[in-house]
Amino acid sequence: MGLQQLKTKIEGAVEDLATLEVASFTGNQINLDGVDPGDVFDTIKSGLTSSTLVGYSRFEVEGDAMNYVNSDLGEDKKYLIDGHNSMVEGAQKSRKDFFEFVLKVLGVDVD
């Protein structure tokens, strides 16, 4: 990857920092055998038609937030909500780490 391509990717990712969305679903197993790694997301997305939304969280850079948790899952499926919460925490950490990386590349002291 050339320097210009890296710059373009970073610029696009910085625009994506404005919002953070995490959606978790449960449903039938989706067969990923033989699926090209670059096509995994699209394959999973196409299989969501028969899935149930577990949780959806959205965070805006200016502080607005929205959270939805499916209350019809029952106590025996609580682990799915815990999994969604773990995904949200991981996504927030990844976003923070990337933001700090961009600031460092730009020469901005984050300490």
TrEMBL record:
This is Uncharacterized protein. It comes from the Bacteria. It comes from Aquimarina spongiae.
